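Researcher: Sit down with what I've pasted below and flag anything odd:
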Amino acid sequence: MKNTFFATLVLCLAFGVTKANYATEGDVFKQKPTSAKKVIRQKTTVPIITGADQTDLYIDYLKGKNVGMVVNQTSVIGKSLTPSPDSLLKRGVLIKKIFGPEHGFRGNAANGARVADEIDAKTGVPVVSLYGKHYKPTDEDLKGLDIIVFDIQDVGTRFYTYISTLHYVMEACAEHNVELMILDRPNPNGYLVDGPVMTDTTYKSFVGMHPIPAAHGMTIGEYAQMINGEGWLKNKVKCQLKVIKLANYKHNMAYQLPVWPSPNLNSQLSILLYPSICLFEGTTLSLGRGTQFPFTVVGHPSLKGKYTFSFTPISIPGVSDNPPLKGQTCYGIDLRNFDAKKLVESKKLNLAWLIELYKAFPDKSHFFNAYINKLWGSEELRKQVEAGKTESEIRQSWEPALSRFKEMRKKYLLYQ
């Protein structure tokens, strides 16, 4: 797979690109043979431009309207990474209300932590939490609003909760005749469409609301079109939708996020590993919450003697206040130097790590917890791993539903 994905990916992983770096997608990087530290950057294509960055396409449309915004710390404009609400307020847009998803409007709440309503100290705009008392905007929340702007960076999985917030915002907008504008952003895992399609409504939850696979390979704008088109909103209502599309984007392009999407996805590698490693949330193991490298390590105290690598989770306020296995030395696998290019080339979730650690775990009756069924969307993964099924056998059970989803998905794609 010889495209710009790998060139960007290798640079990001090798040189430790931080959240202050702006996206370099579309560039080709070539190493000088005489120096391991010098890199020549040759521009071959124009960079991806987010919907938010294309202000000329929507700012006049918003002016004169009472605007609500669903935003978080990833909602930025330009290389200065100015928060989009701050930028639009300065340009005369009347932002009357801000809605914050999981982790809060400014992105400083730990995973799973309930977030309260507040007045934003910087702008003075009321902030309504959609991860506190309720997930869906109420009649009062939408009162007086003409349009809502949804501008949040997603990572392309069924269990990442921003698409669940999208669902409820769309539903509320449809019920109250409020238009929804989406400022589209790239999916850093846009190459990946894989996993079982969730069809068992028994396990429908905020981490699994729709009949889609674990990794859906769409942007927020594309996914919103699918929600509308497939009639997934309550009573099959339709949301009035306006998508500000990305420029110069294809699903197989690499995208170095300029701002991390949540406190525990704090590296480009963790974002690429997330669709596979998040499955360990449904086990008794630690996946690195409470360390500086979450979602790139997995372990448990009882694996001492079977693995030499170890880490100890601690409390990190605002990131992982009370992480699993806090203060206990965990032994397991270290993926911090894993070649993520292998995942991209395979275009598959990796189940090998889950199967390996299950086999190594001494008390198998306590390996999984009840959350695995919500994450997976059924009891099948737990039953298959416990029965000793191979990764290949487990993958076969996803068909033909996965192929049907891929075909249905084509109707809603805005990009190649």
